[in-house]
Automatic annotation (TrEMBL):
Described purpose of this protein according to its UniProt entry: Required for the formation of a threonylcarbamoyl group on adenosine at position 37 (t(6)A37) in tRNAs that read codons beginning with adenine. Is involved in the transfer of the threonylcarbamoyl moiety of threonylcarbamoyl-AMP (TC-AMP) to the N6 group of A37, together with TsaE and TsaB. TsaD likely plays a direct catalytic role in this reaction.
Keyword Cell wall biogenesis/degradation listed: no
UniProt protein name: tRNA N6-adenosine threonylcarbamoyltransferase
Location in the cell: Cytoplasm
UniProt: substrate binding residues: 135-139, 168, 181, 185, 276
One GO MF term attached to the UniProt entry: iron ion binding
Organism (species): Flagellimonas meridianipacifica
Amino acid sequence: IYILAIESSCDDTSAAVLCNTKVLSNVVATQEIHKQYGGVVPELASRAHQQNIVPVVHQALAKANIDKKQLSAIAFTRGPGLMGSLLVGTSFAKSLALALNIPLIEVNHMEAHILAHFIDDEEMTAPPFPFLGMTISGGHTQIVKVNHYFDMEVLGETLDDAVGEAFDKSAKLMGLPYPGGPLVDKHARKGNPSAFSFPKPKVDGLNFSFSGLKTSILYFLQKHTKNNPNFVQENIDDICASVQHTILEILMEKLDKAAKETGIKHVAIGGGVAANSGIRQRLQDARETKGWTTYIPKFQYCTDNAGMIGIVGYLKFMENQFTDQGIAAKARYAIGS
Ligand code: ATP
Ligand code: FE
């Protein structure tokens, strides 16, 4: 089975070709235009998707050495995401499927972040059911009980900012360019995680909150730069390490609670923040300290990519879960709905 997958939910235009569960190509065009605005500008994102989509799909087919006549189906991200961005991928997928007269498969982006673990790759192992999936990305923070491929239950999620947003907004306060998450990670590796301490929010159950952290970082920076205008530059590594430490503590506490409550010890992470070296280390350590079996996707399957859309496409293909041409993009699209 050859699947062409298309992802355009936010600011990355991506296309992938899969042969069954193997990814033959996974091309990602990251939109640089948003950097100068310090965040994604929806209107510019959808325009850039329109420019990128044809070349990106061509490249994915060429790299996989597959002719479009060989394709078995086309999978695309239906949502959640930015409406204008989703429309580009959705319309393109629909037209191509129609032209080639092959089935169309809609994919939930958040389910794809979790199911990326089922991509066949020698550096990855697929978790057995049931497992806990923690999706940590730019727009979401969720702990999900995964009973089966298409049987997922959200146990907890953020009540305000997503964890990726917490990274990016903290970075912005320190004057780091967008997206700041990877830069915080880079500085944190050189800093002392206990140099500064930030309060952790009190949230019941398995839900998260990150908006308070941003505010306390703002006050912290204001206080210190009043006495020393170079405070941030001089302490960037330690500040990043301390901020990251606080965020990781929040994530691990909830994950631990979820594991205890469900009795599940197979824990998988996904989403862009799963690229963070600190969370990867914490998960590694939990194998020894908590007796968990942990699953961490390869870096390129953490951030937005069409490979993860393709694996869901394949799994749905095998279950005959196709969609018709009447399908519309869905900006808000809950897991399991
Ligand atoms: P969603 O999947 O919820 O729609 P998204 O697609 O914008 O959101 P992803 O591409 O999955 O999100 O992840 C992007 C986020 O991951 C950004 O907030 C970015 O800063 C963060 N991120 C990427 N690498 C790292 C890292 N090494 N450390 C911390 N954060 C990181
Ligand atoms: Fe994403």
